[in-house]
Amino acid sequence: MPQPIDMQTEVARTLLAERILQAHGRANLTAQQRQAMEQRQIRMKVETQVNEAEELKDRDVDPDGKGANTSSGQSKSHRDDEKRPGETAHKRPAGDEGLHLDVSI
User: Fold this and answer.
1) Which tens digits make up the pLDDT trace of 24-64?
2) Where are the beta strands (DSSP E) in 1-105?
């Protein structure tokens, strides 16, 4: 013999199923937003990271921060006189044609 259908029970089951689907949809949306935010933070970190020049990686750094100052005790005019005409202040490493901009003032 078939069971009688209780209308309130059926409506409650239907509403419960809808609420479960809505909760599942919200959880998926939250997970997608969290993943997008993490990707955005990773991309931002990569874009704003300062890259170190290859020539600076090989140099030893003085932990005290006191380097040899070759121009100490000399006036600016003496330093300018020491420069030979045609000599540039910045030399490009071999094999880096067109990669560096040499600006002399």
Assistant:
1) 999 999 999 999 999 999 999 988 877 766 666 666 666 67
2) none
- CA distances in angstroms from 36 to 23, 26, 81, 83, listed in the order given: 20, 15, 59, 55
Indicate the SS3 state at residue 20: helix
Domain ranges of the chain: 7-49
Please state, in angstroms and as integers, the Cα–Cα distance from residue 17 to each residue in 8, 24, 26, 41, following that order: 14, 11, 14, 36
Task: Give me the torsion for CA of 29, 32, 33, 37, rounded to 10°.
Answer: 170
Residue 96 has which token pair? 């880096």
Confidence bin at 3 (pLDDT 50/70/90): confident
For residue 20 the two structure tokens come to 């479960």
- Please report the pLDDT score of residue 22 as a whole number: 97
Tokens describing residue 102: 């040499």
Average pLDDT on 72-94 reads 54
